[in-house]
Amino acid sequence: METPEYEAGPLLQKSFAFAVRMMKFHRHLQTNEREFIVSKQLVRSATSIGANAEEATGAISTADFSSKIFIAYKEARETSYWLRLLQASGYIEEKLFLSLHDDCQQLCRILYSILRSSGRA
């Protein structure tokens, strides 16, 4: 399934692709690794990044926009934590971890940059 047909900026594109990737990884963790607790937290926070970024695009005020971007940033930080925990616990091989975590860190940097430019950071 692909992104709906509309012009999405880089943040929305990256966060959507990341959410899809995390949902597939979540399925792998539950099916192949029989890991149910942390993987649920991971997919919740990872999908929340894009959901809040999407909400920010429909914000009715600057404060509303900043608030949604700030929440997306915090969810990205939380996702980084869960990825690191899964890697340290042996659920993610190094190569996959580095790829997933790099995607997450890119989102953190984008979101932080938006927060900085909006005067929130």
Automatic annotation (TrEMBL):
SUPFAM superfamilies: IVS-encoded protein-like. Pfam families: 23S_rRNA_IVP. Coiled coil: none annotated. Gene3D superfamilies: 23S rRNA-intervening sequence. This is Four helix bundle protein.
